[in-house]
Amino acid sequence: MYKYFLEDLKLYTNCNSCNTILLKTKRIYNNPGMKMVLMHRFINETPQYLFFIKPIFKFFYYRMMYKYGIDLPLGLQFGKNLRIYHWGGIVINPDSKIGDNVTILHSVTIGNNMKNTKCPIISDGVFIGVGAKIIGDVFLAENIKVGANAVVTKPVLEKGVTLVGIPAKVIKIIVKETL
Known about the structure:
Elements: H1 5-13, H2 21-29, H3 32-44, H4 54-68, E1 70-71, E2 77-78, E3 83-84, E4 90-92, E5 97-98, E6 103-104, E7 109-111, E8 121-122, E9 127-128, E10 133-135, E11 139-140, E12 145-146, E13 151-152, E14 162-164, E15 169-171
Parallel strand pairs: 1-4, 2-5, 3-6, 4-7, 5-8, 6-9, 7-10, 8-11, 9-12, 10-13, 12-14
Antiparallel strand pairs: 14-15
Helix pairs in contact: 1-3, 3-4
């Protein structure tokens, strides 16, 4: 029933300093991004026969959205291990699609460009830096890093590159092998 719920819980509690259940519970309690992701999964995957519980959880969910500044709509589709660090100012359009192992930092906007309703598709392993904006009919390939305050308005099909600037441009890093 809860496909990725336990995987997300393990992701946020898996650290070297969290060796007791008390420290893991404290880590869960102090992480608003994790609370939002887990509550989103719980509400979307609650079976129909528990219809009377959903409005109560939705009330608390919308209250958390307002409190933490993370606009994670209930219709949003995202994969396992979504990491949201540093709560505040995160706005995501419900028509966007986010893959597995994506990391989002604060002040990020993901949505349409108001000219059409097409929204971004973000593949697996993408890192989205502070203040980045991903707007319009954009596809980001696997393992892309979007730099701080970058504005991505065009699709990037090359895997493993870094995007920086306004508008975002691909930066290729050449690593020289030493013998």
